[in-house]
Backbone:
């Protein structure tokens, strides 16, 4: 559709990640991914949507190295940054906060469990800076059980950002939040990710979320999944998420992308009509 | 009306007061009923055996066997002060409590360590499973004679037996805790750069410690029971040996005094254990 506008933060259009013709089947025999190819520009946010159960989470597990493709290749470009950055972190759909640690200790989990180049003082500064950026100052000493759902998600997000990773995988991270909370978090996450130059892959059920946060959106086919359509999202690096949702360009794009997504949802429903399902 | 006024003026004085006052007011019918029940029981215990017709019915109404609150109160006073050539109870309480606390500590540390290791290494846990279930099924008191032969009728034997009891309580909790660590937590830590050692130390160990600590009130109660039983069987000085003496000398007032003291000690230890647990595990259960 539109060729320009993607990843404007980074000069050039070098790809951080190239997924080429990756296929994957679980030992049971279900083919989950079929010849999937994705290119992710450095510093961009890629939103991935598709029918329920199409294999989005499997894709993330493959990217995280938790699973390995049967055929095809997943290639990451070399890290030319000095000093080299932490390769990859992931924000899970389920809660990963450690209940016995305070917000600041949860955010700084990376520093506790792995060797960091940062000294103690620098670690502290980074943690408190991130907490400020996410609007959570004052909550540093709180424990997860004292936080609202939105605050817990913010903390989990900061914990995966504190390591200053090159890549961040988001696996439906905000699906349990109400819409006003979600949009507030979108704004903070978008700003922090762009500021840190982190390349993001976002898996979501929420098309509005995908379009408002991403530089490119991909629609997957129903299982076995491959990329059905790709869209460039031309909203740049300065976005106001409250205004974006009423922007005619956003609404037009939403309608356009939804049309294509609906095709896949219908196909998926036709395919699974004979077995009980709990989605949509 | 007057009580309402009192509540209000107390509320102006301090913030915590009104809620505490209203709580006391809400609870007082319960407390009064409990007190009434206790007094009724004491009176019945004291005076029913003095009715000749009942006394003739059997041992249950014979003060020689069931003693009386009055005799027990005097016995407790003597045990506490050394009056009338009575032995002092404090040293006995201390040796029992000491053995129980030591047994609890050792048993919980060993149980937590084993639970941590077995929950971390699936293969090992599968190999060990039948042995652990088998060992848990052994009545620990049956091991007392062997332990006494090996270690002699000493306080050490009492501690070892209580360790054996506490170990399994702590172990099963620790294992459950170590196994309850969700896969996402481990994957998340791994992606953040943790190696296996850090996952064991920073993720699994805290879960294991929390679950083990959750069993503290139960463990310490078990330990007291076990130590007293071991003392009865071995004659090692302690509350158990006092019970043994009481039985041999037919001193029912002493028996009940020891039992009541053990009740009080047990309640105190359980409350302390609950407080420790609530304090350390404040984040638990939310």
Residues:
């Amino acid at each position: 559709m539109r060729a320009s506008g993607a990843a404007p933060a980074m000069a050039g259009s070098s790809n951080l990640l190239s997924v080429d013709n990756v296929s994957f089947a679980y030992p049971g025999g279900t083919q989950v991914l079929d010849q999937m190819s994705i290119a992710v520009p450095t510093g961009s946010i890629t939103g991935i949507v598709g029918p329920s159960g199409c294999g989005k989470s499997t894709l993330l597990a493959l990217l995280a190295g938790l699973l390995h493709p049967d055929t095809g290749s997943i290639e990451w470009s070399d890290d030319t940054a000095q000093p080299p950055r932490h390769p990859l972190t992931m924000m899970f759909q389920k809660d990963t906060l450690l209940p016995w640690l305070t917000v600041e200790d949860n955010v700084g989990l990376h520093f506790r469990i792995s060797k960091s180049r940062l000294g103690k003082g620098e670690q502290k500064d980074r943690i408190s800076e991130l907490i400020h950026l996410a609007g959570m100052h004052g909550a540093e000493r709180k424990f997860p059980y004292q936080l609202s759902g939105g605050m817990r998600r913010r903390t989990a997000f900061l914990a995966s950002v504190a390591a200053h990773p090159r890549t961040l995988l988001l696996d439906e991270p905000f699906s349990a939040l109400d819409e006003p909370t979600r949009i507030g978090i979108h704004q903070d996450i978008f700003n922090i990710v762009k500021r840190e130059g982190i390349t993001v892959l976002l898996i979501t059920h929420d098309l509005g979320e995908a379009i408002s946060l991403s530089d490119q959106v991909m629609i997957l086919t129903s299982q076995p999944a491959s990329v059905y359509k790709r869209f460039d999202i031309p909203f740049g690096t300065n976005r106001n998420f409250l205004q974006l949702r009423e922007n005619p360009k956003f609404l037009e794009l939403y309608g356009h992308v939804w049309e294509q997504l609906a095709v896949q949802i219908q196909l998926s429903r036709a395919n699974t009509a004979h077995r009980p399902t709990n989605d949509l | 009306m007057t009580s309402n006024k009192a509540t209000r003026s107390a509320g102006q004085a301090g913030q915590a007061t009104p809620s505490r006052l209203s709580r006391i007011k809400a609870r007082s019918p319960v407390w009064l009923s409990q007190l009434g029940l206790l007094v009724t029981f004491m009176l019945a215990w004291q005076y029913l055996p003095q009715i000749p017709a009942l006394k003739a019915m059997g041992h249950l109404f014979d003060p020689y066997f069931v003693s009386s609150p009055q005799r027990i109160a005097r016995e407790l006073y003597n045990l506490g002060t050394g009056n009338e050539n009575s032995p002092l109870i404090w040293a006995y309480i201390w040796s029992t409590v000491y053995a129980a606390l030591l047994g609890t500590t050792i048993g919980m540390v060993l149980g937590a360590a084993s639970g941590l290791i077995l929950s971390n290494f699936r293969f090992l846990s599968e190999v060990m499973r039948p042995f652990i279930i088998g060992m848990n099924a052994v009545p620990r008191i049956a091991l007392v004679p062997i332990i006494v032969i090996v270690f002699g009728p000493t306080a050490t034997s009492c501690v070892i037996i209580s360790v054996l009891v506490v170990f399994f309580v702590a172990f099963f909790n620790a294992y459950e805790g170590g196994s309850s660590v969700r896969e996402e937590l481990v994957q998340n830590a791994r992606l953040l750069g943790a190696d296996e050692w850090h996952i064991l130390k920073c993720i699994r160990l805290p879960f294991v410690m929390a679950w083990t600590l959750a069993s503290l009130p139960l463990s310490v109660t078990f330990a007291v029971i076990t130590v007293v039983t071991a003392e009865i069987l071995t004659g090692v000085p302690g509350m158990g040996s006092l019970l043994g003496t009481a039985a041999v000398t037919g001193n029912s007032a002493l028996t009940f005094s020891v039992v009541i003291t053990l009740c009080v000690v047990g309640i105190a230890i359980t409350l302390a254990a609950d407080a420790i647990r609530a304090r350390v595990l404040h984040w638990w259960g939310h």
Notes: Confidence is low (pLDDT under 50) at residues 1-12 of chain A. Chain A touches chain B at residues 64, 66, 86, 88-90, 92, 94-96, 98-100, 109-110, 112-115, 143-145, 159-160, 163 (CB under 8 Å). Chain A has two domains: 1-85+165-280, 96-163.
